[in-house]
Write a structure and sequence with these properties.
Layout (H helix, E strand, L loop, with lengths): L5 H4 L18 H21 L13 H27 L2 H23 L16 H29 L7 H25 L8 E3 L2 E2 L1 H23 L4 H22 L7 H49 L4 H16 L3 E8 L2 E11 L2 E10 L7 H10 L3 E3 L11 H5 L4 E9 L2 E10 L8 H40 L3 E6 L4 E4 L1 H7 L3 H5 L10 H4 L2 H10 L2 E10 L5 E10 L6 E8 L1 H35 L1 H27 L5 H29 L7 E3 L1 H11 L1 H6 L3 E6 L6 E3 L1 H19 L8 E9 L2 E8 L27 H11 L3 E6 L5 E7 L7
Parallel strand pairs: 15-17
Antiparallel strand pairs: 1-2, 3-4, 3-8, 4-5, 6-7, 7-8, 9-10, 9-13, 11-12, 12-13, 14-16, 17-18, 18-20, 19-20
Helix pairs in contact: 2-8, 3-4, 3-9, 4-5, 4-6, 5-6, 5-7, 5-8, 7-8, 8-9, 9-10, 9-13, 10-13, 18-23, 19-20, 21-23, 23-24
Length: 837
């Protein structure tokens, strides 16, 4: 079990100055060392006890030599403790320093006053009793200091905030000690009247001395007990050893009866020396330990500063340069390489070397080869991700490496830069001057730097990625091609680019003042806003939709809007707004053009109808003339029948019936011509195609008979009705019949045949008009449908082209094929019923 386990556990806690020996708990090793010394002391006492009084030859120089040594060690100890006090402000340490100072001063005087040392009776002009009295003062002073030390140490906590200047306190204390020691010396030298006689003769102590020694031992034992009870620190531990040594020394002195120049006399002084050197040794050891820690702390502080410098770099070349400089400076290296992954392979990204006291860094990519770096070592570290230290570059597992022998490296360190378990890079540093250049302290600092470097490299990469993305977005926003808004889902526009502001003719001040809302649309467009907000909240995105915004002047701007929620904010979204004004204008213009085109087509079709009717004018006049002539003749005959006596009323009635029928026939023809010639907008209705065909055949009857054309119709009954404009459809059929009659005028009258048929097809109704004319142009039969293609002297070449556009506008098709043995067949396909639009 740990014999001093109360140390530490009962320590003063972390709020006390942990660097002070008065508060640092002892390590187990220190505890065992102190116990060993204590055991040696007690063993020494046991060994010396039987022989302490044995006389030994006089050595006059012994006491001055020992006292001088003790004076020096006690004095240095006092100085060190005072220095400790000046840092920690611990009054306990000040008390101890005063104790050591008292000791050192009394010892000095003791040496001077010792009879036979410098003069036969001592140097102070005192009596033969002076030295022994000084000896007792000396041994009483130290336990007194120990009591003060223990007492003040606890009150140090309470007075931790005291601000009295330490130098003043120290000077006053030292002055007090000098005064006290002066008093002791005076008492020792001139106090014969006040103090009892200690020595019965110059070499032998009287019984009073023995009593005083016993009392001093008791006081020391009390000090030892107090230290034991209140033990806390490594200093307490060694003070116990010191007090024990003092007790042992006093015991030996008592054992040899205070007689000078006995074995006990001499060895007792050796114990005094132990008493004096223990704390000094401890202080010196602790000082060197603290110095080591300070050096390490300084290196760590440098590394932390360097880390901060690294973490502030966001551009890769700057970061690499800074990193290499810091590493070389902190590692005591004169060459360095940084190897980073790049597109699946590792490349040397930077080289650094020491030139004089400057570090030169070259940045540029170089492949890993046996010439550029110790390749086998680097590949090993890439593979294992473990740090490799070559304290002697010539004798190790990589000593066969070409680079290491060529470049005369002495110490090499290859450090992996690990970030979240991933190898972020490799740092290789070399020292060409010394073996074992990379001490464990430096390596721990470098590891700290390596960790920071890995983080900084990763951060730089992330920053660059972010920067590039941000730059792309910024370019989009700044390009001002489309309006971009940052909106909150409550209706506020938080940010908008210039393109949007231009679109709605607001300025930035309006935006900043919060006057603008993305919900400020005409009422017609507001309806879906709530629903859209819900969609953005739930789905996070909105398909582009059209709406209108009010401009600042109250006019409206048509826009296309797309919305995407900003994931990080939940209540905010980015909206992309495209101005549709131009598009809408173009659409309106297109609609107008289409309307005008339709109108023009109508006009053209109308002109074509008039022209076609014009061509039939003679036949039609004849057609109308015929009933009118018959009417006239019947009317004259009827008059005659009426003038007869008695009037023949039956015949007259029959003739008037014929007159009515002929008049109707004439009115019917005129009505049809009028309908055909009038300029009316297209109007579709359900039609029986056979009626249309029959009507047109009737209209052209006179023309066909004049031209000797034999007309045959094969109209299939029960055809479904079609959805079409009757006038336009008549126009097409009429045009095709007139063309056929005209074409057949080129062939002999005996072979002029016109066949008109209607039939049902799977996808509609087919009307075919076949003639026995000369037929279509063989090279390119389709040419006849081109506008302005004509073979007639007075032709316009517009008829067939208009017919095709009429049929296509009805969702149908018009095409021509050759007839057998000669002639042409025109096919007119019309879709059924309601499907026609
Ligand atoms: P136009 O009758 O004013 O010439 P169309 O567009 O009606 O204009 O006819 C174009 C041309 O197609 C005619 O000039 C003629 O050469 C040819 N064509 C039209 N119908 C027939 C037909 N049934 N047989 C042979 N050629 C025809």
């Amino acid at each position: 079990m740990e014999p001093f386990s109360r140390f530490g556990a009962n320590g003063l806690g972390t709020d006390q100055p942990q660097l002070s020996l008065a508060y640092l708990p002892p390590t187990p090793r220190q505890t065992w060392s102190a116990l060993a010394v204590a055991a040696v002391l007690l063993l020494g006492l046991g060994v010396l006890a039987p022989v302490a009084g044995k006389p030994v030859p006089h050595v006059n120089g012994f006491i001055p030599a020992i006292d001088a040594t003790i004076f020096l060690t006690d004095f240095i100890t006092a100085c060190l403790l005072l220095a400790d006090f000046s840092i920690t402000r611990s009054r306990a340490l000040l008390a101890l320093a005063c104790g050591y100072l008292t000791s050192s001063l009394i010892v000095a005087v003791h040496g001077l006053s010792f009879p036979g040392a410098f003069s036969p009776t001592g140097n102070l002009g005192g009596s033969s009793q002076t030295t022994i009295r000084l000896y007792l003062f000396w041994h009483l002073g130290f336990p007194a200091a120990v009591f003060a030390y223990v007492w003040l140490r606890d009150s140090d906590r309470a007075k931790a905030g005291s601000h009295a200047p330490t130098s003043l306190v120290a000077v006053c204390s030292v002055a007090g000690i000098f005064a006290l020691v002066g008093l002791f010396v005076w008492l020792a030298a001139a106090g014969d009247a006040l103090l009892p006689t200690a020595l019965v003769d110059p070499s032998h102590a009287g019984p009073v001395v023995l009593w005083l020694i016993a009392l001093t031992m008791l006081i020391c034992a009390a000090a030892l007990s107090v230290l034991w009870v209140f033990r806390r620190s490594v200093l307490d531990l060694w003070l116990m050893v010191v007090v024990l040594a003092s007790i042992v020394e006093l015991a030996i002195t008592a054992l040899f009866g205070g007689t000078r120049f006995t074995l006990g006399f001499y060895t007792g002084r050796v114990f005094s020396l132990v008493t004096s050197t223990v704390v000094l040794t401890l202080l010196l050891a602790e000082t060197s330990r603290l110095y080591g820690r300070l050096t390490h702390a300084n290196m760590l502080a440098g590394a932390v500063k360097a880390s901060q410098a690294l973490s502030s770099k966001i551009e890769l070349p700057n970061l690499i340069e800074q990193m290499m400089k810091i590493v070389l400076a902190n590692a005591d290296a004169d060459r360095g390489l940084l190897i980073l992954p790049s597109e699946g392979e590792y490349l040397i990204q930077a080289k650094a070397r020491m030139i004089g006291d400057q570090i030169e860094v070259t940045i540029g990519q170089t492949p890993i080869t046996g010439i550029t770096c110790p390749e086998s070592l680097v590949r090993h570290v890439i593979r294992t991700q473990e740090c490799v230290i070559l304290n002697d570059a010539f004798s190790n597992q990589f000593s066969g490496d070409e680079y290491l022998s060529d470049q005369q490296s002495k110490s090499v360190l290859c450090l992996p830069l690990i970030k979240q378990g991933e190898l972020a890079g490799i740092l290789l540093i070399e020292n060409t001057r010394t073996l074992h250049a990379f001490t464990s302290a430096r390596i721990s600092v470098l590891e700290l730097l390596a960790a920071q470097a890995a983080i900084s490299l990763e951060n730089t990469r992330l920053y660059n990625d972010l920067y590039e993305r941000e730059a792309k977005i910024r370019r989009l926003v700044d390009s001002n091609i489309i309006g971009i808004l940052i909106i909150d889902l409550d209706g506020r526009i938080i940010e908008a680019n210039d393109a949007f502001l231009r679109m709605v003719r607001y300025d930035r001040e309006d935006l900043i003042s919060g006057r603008m809302h993305w919900t400020d649309s005409p009422p017609k467009w507001r309806g879906g806003d709530e629903q859209r907000v819900e969609m953005v909240k739930t789905i996070g995105t909105l398909q582009a939709f059209e709406k209108e915004y009010f401009r600042k002047d109250g006019s409206r701007v048509p826009v296309l809007v797309g919305v995407e929620r900003i994931e990080e904010t939940k209540n905010q979204a980015v909206a992309f707004v495209i101005d549709l004004t131009e598009q809408k204008r173009a659409e309106a213009a297109l609609r107008d053009a289409e309307l005008r085109n339709i109108e023009a087509q109508m006009l053209l079709a109308h002109a074509n109808r008039i022209a076609t009717i014009g061509e039939l004018a003679a036949s039609l006049a004849h057609e109308v003339n015929h009933p009118i002539g018959a009417t006239l003749m019947n009317a004259e005959t009827a008059l005659r029948w009426l003038a007869a006596s008695p009037p023949n009323l039956d015949n007259t009635r029959r003739l008037i019936g014929r007159i009515i029928a002929d008049s109707k026939r004439a009115a019917d023809i005129v009505g049809r011509i009028r309908d055909f010639a009038k300029k009316a907008p297209a109007r579709k209705e359900a039609l029986e195609i056979n009626d249309i065909v029959s009507g047109v055949v009737g209209l052209t009857r006179s023309e066909t008979s004049t031209n000797g054309v034999l007309v045959e119709t094969r109209l299939t009954g029960g055809l479904p009705s079609i959805w079409a404009d009757p006038v336009q459809l008549q126009q097409v059929v009429l045009n095709l019949i007139v063309n056929a009659i005209e074409a057949m005028s080129e062939v002999g009258e005996e072979s002029r045949r016109l066949l008109i048929s209607t039939e049902a097809e799977s996808d509609g109704i087919l009307i075919t008009i076949s003639d026995s004319g000369p037929g279509l142009p063989q090279a390119d039969p389709e040419r006849i449908f081109e506008a302005f293609y004509t073979t007639k002297a007075s032709g316009l070449g517009m008829g067939l082209s208009i017919c095709r556009s009429i049929i296509e506008a009805h969702g149908g098709r018009l095409w021509a094929t050759p007839n057998e043995p000669h002639g042409a067949v025109f096919h007119l396909m019309l879709p059924n019923g309601e499907e026609i639009t």
